[in-house]
User: Fold this.
Amino acid sequence: MYSGFYHSVIGASHTAKGTVCQDFSDFKVYENYALAAVADGHGSKKHFRSDVGARMAVAATVQTVASYYADAPAFEESFERDPKRLIRKIEKQIISRWDRAILRHLQENPFTALERAPFSEEEFEDIRTESIYGTTLIAVVYGRKFTFGIQIGDGSMVVIDQDAQAEMPIIDDESCPANLTASMSNSNAIDLFNSFYTMEAPLAVFVSTDGLYTSFRSSEDFLDYHTIIASHLGQLGEFDKVITRNLVKRTNFGTQDDISMAGAFDPQFLAQHLQILRTQVEKNKRRAEMRKAEQAARIQKQKLKNQLRRNPNLQVE
Assistant:
């Protein structure tokens, strides 16, 4: 009934430095729902096991949602009565599972001399265990009766509705105070989660780490990209090859950051709306050309203003 994809590519900057990919992504399909998730380990000096933290955040999400869907009818009924309460409970359980997982990993994999080397003894002792595994997390569940998503930290979630309109239902880091990156490792992580839900079946849902969004010139271009992707999901085998090449190209010639992307959809439902999607793609292309022309005109106007400032006597034809 459901289908989807997931891809993670290592950033060009990480390849150059010889560091590992800090991203992790996954997609799972079950009888009553599909789940797509991505996580972006922080990767800075004190987050030296954040690649493991990212993997464990996605795993904790998969396990938590599966535990709720173990009794699908009861969960669906409870969700329809009070979706916000259920989502909050899911977020809390994900944090709890992640906390237990990283502590278990540390017990089984004590810190090495190489990991300690960049720090003084005092510096190392001041680092919280959770920070060492710090990561963001974005996940979306496409169910038979509803769709919902959760996010902590940067990155993006995109929903394509039945009119083929793309939107980001969660604003990046909208609940996070200034100068603080929301993370699974924050002591108040539960207060930094954002979520959305809808009872109307979307055509497709996508999640991605921030390396993808920052490879675009504008949010409009970013959303148009997802509409194009949705229109090609019917040929998933060929699509997988194309999307991987595209993500590699985007990191090599754009952000140079790791990029992860995952998505979920109902193939039969999507096929019924394929013409609407294709029509929207063509509309978006025309709008993109207009934006491009307007941007070129603004740049030309600014150049002329600069010339006039430098030379007030300049004759303009």
Notes: The chain has twelve helices and ten strands.
